[in-house]
Task: structure prediction
Amino acid sequence: MRIAFWKKTVDDIYCDNPPQQPVALELWKAVKRHNLTKRWLMKIIDEREKNLDDKAYRNIQELENYAENTQSSLLYLTLEILGVKDLHADHAASHIGKAQGIVTCLRATPYHGSRRRVFLPMDICMLHGVSQEDFLRKNQDKNVRDVIYDIASQAHLHLKHARSFHKSVPMKAFPAFLQTVALENYLKRIQQVDFDIFHPSLQQKDTLLPLSLYIQSWRKRY
Result:
């Protein structure tokens, strides 16, 4: 019902007839002010609808597709709000969104495990002979850590690709991409604990993260 509500709401917003609901009204204002593309909003809703059954991703490509249609779509909208229309920025946003989706899946693994759910890509788990039960039992064997290493490496690769466009991306797009600081921070922390996804330190806030964000913002880097 929520999905149906938002589909109709987005349609109504683009017909200048938003429902009298606080979030919908603010979204309508943003659409009017920044001429936001309807396609990106619908992609987010449609992709979430496809994943309502909350099954594990069959492979890393499925996870990347989900991230592209949700996280990357949000970044495309953010670029529109910033007034950025640039192919290099779009390419960077695509890779950053995929990295964000992969890292979010990794970070949520302990929480999902506590609810007896595992969403990590099945092809990588099978490659290392790891079952969902291994994650539910918080198994810390090497093959379990190898699964996490492979998935984290894919996120790192997307960050690397995104940064390869650094010199070509307009400066005013950089605020949209500062989330790379938090992504890289998590990937470094998980490396430091030898890819033990259940290590307690990964569930703690990094008090230096705001400073890192400020420094990267000041340096005009992402």
About this structure: The mean pLDDT is 95.
